[in-house]
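Changelog-adjacent note: as of this version, every example in the card shows the full chain rather than a window. The one below runs 132 residues end to end.
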Amino acid sequence: MKAFYFMFLFTMCLSPTFAEELTWGTHREVIQSNGPHRLITAVQEQDTEKLKTVWTKDLHETFAARGWQKVLRLYETAFEAEGLTEWERDKILYAYQKKDDRSGKITIKYNGEVKGELRVRLQDGTWLLDEN
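Full-length structure tokens:
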């Protein structure tokens, strides 16, 4: 039983959420949130042109092959299921956890509740989503 508690505490201490306090800010304050914020904006506005600017080159090619309207519909369905279509974008907070100089993770918070994490990568001077 002691081994279980040790491993649990050890894991919790290594988790970035527990090991360090996250610094929260709006999309204007956390530049690494560029991709996630534009994804939310694109889906809420049903804008395929904005949607095309969200992902890294590899994912952009994958989504282009699927068709941008289809990708938009997939994200609209997912956002509706989670209630994200009703979010007020200026009330969304982001926190960045650095992996290295060109990548990391964005944590998203709305109404005081953490909603999820997304990997981001710096590519051609812009922070983009590195997962779908």
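Structural remarks: Residues 22-129 form a domain with the Nuclear Transport Factor 2; Chain: A, fold (CATH 3.10.450).
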